[in-house]
Amino acid sequence: xxRPPGPFPVDPAAARPVFAPADSPSFRNALARVPAAVVVVAxxxxxxxxxxxxTAFTSVSDDPPTILVCLNRKSAQNETFRNxxxxxxxMLAAEDQAIANDFAGFTKLPAPERxxxxxxxxxxxxxxxxxxxxxxxxxxxxDINPVATHNVMIGRVIGLTIEPPVxxxxxxxxxxxxxxxxI
Length: 183
Ligand SMILES: Cc1cc2nc3c(=O)[nH]c(=O)nc-3n(C[C@H](O)[C@H](O)[C@H](O)COP(=O)(O)O)c2cc1C
What we know:
The chain is mainly β. It has one domain (24-182): Electron Transport, Fmn-binding Protein, Chain A (Pnp Oxidase, Chain A), CATH 2.30.110.10. The chain contains three helices and twelve strands. The chain has helices at residues 24-32, 77-84, 97-103, and strands at 36-37, 39-43, 50-54, 57-62, 65-72, 86-91, 120-122, 128-130, 135-147, 150-162, 173-176, 179-182. A seven-stranded antiparallel sheet has the order 3-2-6-9-10-5-4, with helices on both faces. A three-stranded antiparallel sheet has the order 1-11-12, with no helix packed on it. A two-stranded antiparallel sheet has the order 7-8. Bound molecules: flavin mononucleotide (FMN). Keywords: Oxidoreductase.
């Protein structure tokens, strides 16, 4: 693809395919290189308990405190989250890979049984909050926007917990290059 000259020098020697066409596999390979915190998104209420492991989580605004998390529309849990109207986002500690595996479905547990590992309490909204999480956000579900394959769930953060930093050992569980890492 030819491009207009830009406000920067173009080095003809650097002729690698910088602009590879983006399709689903190349996109997945690119995003696999982006380190992300591993969170468990959990809910409870009239529709029952549920939760899933996620990396598609980010801040939206601090006024009012607002986050988003993306849930695949194939998951039967979409209705659980919609009907409960509350959820938490729990950033896992480095040692909690087993909890990540349970909530990712790797251990084949039905969603309500994924809470067997870890100690849980309830936030102000009634959402389950993981006691060992490094950070937990207690959210009201204020909007759900379907985008491509996923539902973007918007959460208004009502309460939160923060664990103090730990020295001299890994603190947080990340996902990078299709495997867990600890920092
Ligand atoms: C590291 C990691 C990150 C994940 N991130 C997401 C995510 O952001 N959104 C999502 O919908 N599923 C994500 N998944 C997959 C879900 O955790 C998995 O599909 C889970 O089983 C959903 O529960 P359900 O299928 O019983 O509803 C991730 C899995 C792993 C291991």
